[in-house]
Amino acid sequence: MTQKITVIRGDGIGPEIMDATLYVLGRLDVGLEYEFADAGLVALEKHGELLPQATLDSIARNRVALKSPLTTPVGGGFSSINVALRRHFDLYANVRPAHSFPNTRSRFPSGVDLITVRENTEGAYIGEGQTLSEDGETAMLVQKITRKGSERIVRYAFELARRTGRKKVTVVHKANILKTTSGLFLHVAREVAAQYPDIECNEMIVDNTCMQLVMRPEQFDIIVTTNLFGDIISDLCAGLVGGLGLAPGANIGEHAAIFEAVHGTAPDIAGKGIANPCALLLGAAQMLDHIGQPDKAARLRGAIVATLEAKDSLTGDLGGTGTTLGFAEAIASRL
Ligand code: NAI
Ligand code: MG
Question: Do residues 300 and 335 make contact, with C-beta atoms less than 8 angstroms apart?
């Protein structure tokens, strides 16, 4: 039986990298059927809203979506579409692998192979209690950490370690200062870790973690942390291995999962056919793992690495002069 997934082609370079990604998936013969749905600026123009109900219904039905970047108009009271999607489907786990690749402009062409597991629904990003005093002198916001939210994200990280043969989970926190919020997260993380004696667990304070990541990234395997820290750390990790063109992310919930590139719509290069498709392709590889096609995911990643090694058709961000589709064809030829 073919599985149907929702495909959101997105804004800016979105359609270009999605076409390239679907071309490679076609050559990989993954047996997927695509239900196209609109979101972002395209949806605003066509349907008068950034996130149409039909798109939410499609994702709810198919439970898996592959999504290109979306433009959130600046100002005008629009809340981020990505945040809205994560919240709507309770996509609590943001899973961002960072992997050294050959021939990038990275400081670590080898030795980095880690996954940041970021709590995606609470912490500092709940958008509650944001106030500014009338005199404009004092701003406040509320951070919320729950036992339930902490438990499920830490458990996700340990299960991911078991499932993928990884050996170590590092719990990143700031419980020495943020005694209640980060303190609860750490407390719950210790309880969960005790249930996984087969996986090594260590604890690290977030500021030290940033320094350690830059000095010795090879010591990390899986990092699990709260929303704000995970947002910052996962971008740091993307920077370690060569930047946005190679950074994918998955947003996983109990009832749905959305796979994407970490980068945005790249308006400066949109429409020119020169965007790097690898981040979305790597997001598609995460999706193949998720839907039970790990062999195809491994073949896809292997073809990407082989193409980087051969320096064949690389796009401008990687120092080449290739096109989005040319890069995709070079990858497809090595599947
Ligand atoms: P951006 O990631 O779109 O671009 C930053 C820089 O990286 C630009 O120079 C761009 O050309 C380059 N770049 C990004 N992806 C690339 C690729 N695949 N190949 C080659 N070069 C690439 O970030 P920016 O400029 O801050 O945001 C632009 C728009 O994207 C905004 O409207 C923002 O709201 C949206 N955005 C959407 C996201 C999503 O839907 N997941 C995530 C981040 C931003
Ligand atoms: Mg971010």
Answer: yes
The confidence score (pLDDT) of residue 80 equals 82
137 lies in the same domain as 108: no
**139 and 98 fall within a common domain:** no
pLDDT at 148 over 90: yes
Residue 50, SS3 per DSSP: coil
Q: What is the position in ligand 1's atom list of the atom closest to the CA of 17?
A: 18
Instruction: Return the ligand 1 atom nearest residue 269 CA.
Output: 11
Q: Is the per-residue pLDDT at 262 higher than 70?
A: yes
CA 130 – ligand 1 centroid, Å: 27
| pLDDT category of residue 18 using cuts at 50, 70 and 90 | very high
Please compute the mean of the pLDDT values over residues 76-100 and round it to a whole number: 88
Domain termination site, one of 194, 221, 240? 240
pLDDT (tens digit, 9 = 90+) per residue, 206-254? Answer: 999 999 999 999 999 999 999 999 999 999 999 999 878 899 999 999 9
Compute, in angstroms, the gap from residue 14 CA to the centroid of ligand 1.
10
Domain identity same for 278 and 132: no
CA distance 238 to 247: 6
CA 91 to ligand 1 centroid distance, Å: 22
Domain extent, residue 181, equals 121-240
* Same-domain pairing of 99 and 163: no
Domain count, the chain: 2
Q: What residues contact 226, with CB distance under 8 A and at least 6 apart? A: 118, 119, 122, 123, 124, 145, 173, 181, 182, 185
pLDDT for the residue numbered 54 = 97
pTM confidence score: 0.94
CATH number for the domain harbouring residue 27? 3.40.718.10
Residues 36, 66 contacting (CB under 8 angstroms): no
* Catalytic residue positions, numbered: 125, 174, 207, 231
The token pair at 154 is 């830490």
Among 189, 218, 240, which residue terminates a domain?
240
